[in-house]
Amino acid sequence: MMNHYGSFSRQAFHQKRVFLDQRIAQSMLALDLVIAIRREIPGLGTKKLYLLLREPLQKSGISMGRDRLHELLRTHHLLIRHRRSVPKTTHSNHLLRKYPNLIKGLSIIETEQVWVNESFLIH
């Protein structure tokens, strides 16, 4: 039977509407909890957030898995961005004092003939 609700009954239409309203309310509560935790620990990712939120969400009667929490964070742009690990190399064009290489041209014959120490201290 086709009606102005689509191809399903009025009861199914209203049940779906109530379900979606509850889902939105649950999502808002979960987002509030996430924001409260992120104020204290800003770099917390989805897995650890899920572990911290599991008990408070269960007490509130909300069943939300890790993947649903991840999608919720994604839709609200709350995912932590991964920083690309760039190789850290020596920057030799700085204005600090540069010491000469004292072992350049030295023929190393035995073990422990040369010791190297790299210390960098900024005051």
Care to describe what's here?
- This protein has 123 residues and is mainly alpha-helical.
- Helix content is 45%, strand content 0%.
- It is built from three helices and no strands.
Keywords:
123 residues; mainly alpha; 3 helices
Helix content: 40-55%
Instruction: Return the structural class.
Output: mainly alpha
Which term fits the overall shape? rod-shaped
Beta strand count: 0
Number of helices: 3
Largest sheet: none
Estimate what percentage of residues fall within beta strands: under 5%
Estimate the mean pLDDT confidence. 85
The N- and C-terminal alpha carbons lie at a distance of 80 Å
Q: In terms of per-residue confidence, which ranges show pLDDT below 50 for 5 or more consecutive residues? A: none
Rg calculated over all Cα atoms: 29 Å
User: How are helices and strands ordered from N to C?
Assistant: HHH
